[in-house]
Amino acid sequence: MRPQDILILLKIDADRQRLMHKCSLDSMVDIMMPLLQKNIALDLGISPSEVTESLARSVFAGLYDPTRKRVMASALLDFLQYGLKYVFPQQPGSLVRGTPTAHSAKPLCELVQSNEPYVWPNADGTVRGQAIDPLYPTVVKAVENDPFLYEMLALIDAIRVGKSREVKLAVEELTKRIRVNE
Questions:
Q1: Domain match, 9 and 82 both
Q2: Which of 88, 97, 165, 172 is nearest to 134 (CA)?
Q3: Does 63 map to a domain?
Q4: How far apart, in Å, do the first and last CA atoms of the chain sit?
Q5: What does the buried/exposed string (b/e) look like for 128-157 if buried means 16 or more CB atoms within 10 Å of the residue's CB?
Q6: Of 101, 160, 88, whose CA–CA distance to 130 is shortest?
Q7: Which superkingdom (predicted)?
Q8: 163 lies in a domain?
Q9: Can you tell me the distance from the alpha carbon of 59 to that of 163, in angstroms, rounded to the nearest whole number?
């Protein structure tokens, strides 16, 4: 697994969520159309060939079903909860201007009180806090127009750098977002 594999899987699920919010549940059966890989690549700032390679790795790892074009939700949640912080660890860095993440972004900022904000370094950012390297370099740009993806990536960072309470809350919130419907 590579960091972009998680980003791509979360993007696929975020786009599924966006479709669910736009459509009624009755028409959801007809909506399960897959995203085009070129659109995923464009939205995330990743090359189309890397998206293809990433999905192949995710299929091999049991995190993506290529026939249904869907994220294997329970497997992904297990990996995020139990493996993410070991495979892609992160330590808060120096104070920088950036985009809030982890417990400093929604939805955890509404549940956790902290005077130490965590941010993805970003010159256009609105908050000064401890730097957290994003899972992949294009994350800050990718989340600008995708609130579902932004929330999930912030929750991912809470798992990577949070204390046990923040990790527990992040896992609960991710479980709400990545619906297990396999």
A1: yes
A2: 88
A3: yes
A4: 22
A5: ebbbbbbbbeebbebbeebebbbbbbbbbb
A6: 101
A7: Bacteria
A8: yes
A9: 31
Question: Position of tokens 């709400």?
Answer: 176
Distance of CA 136 to the CA centre of its chain: 10
Q: 83 and 8, same structural domain?
A: yes
Reading the chain (182 residues) residue by residue, the pLDDT tens digits are: 999 999 999 999 888 777 776 665 444 444 444 457 888 999 999 999 999 999 999 999 999 999 888 899 999 999 999 999 999 999 999 999 999 999 999 999 888 888 899 999 999 998 999 999 999 999 999 999 899 999 999 999 999 999 999 999 999 999 998 875 44
Radius of gyration of the chain (CA): 16
Q: What's the whole-model pTM score?
A: 0.88
Among 87, 122, 152, residue at a domain's last position: 87
* CA proximity to 118, closest of 128, 126, 110: 128
Instruction: Give the pLDDT score at 180.
Output: 52
Same domain membership, residue 168 and residue 108: yes
Give the residue from 166, 31, 2 showing the smallest Cα distance to 154.
166
Q: Which residue has the tokens 């949640």?
A: 77
Domain that holds residue 37: 3-87
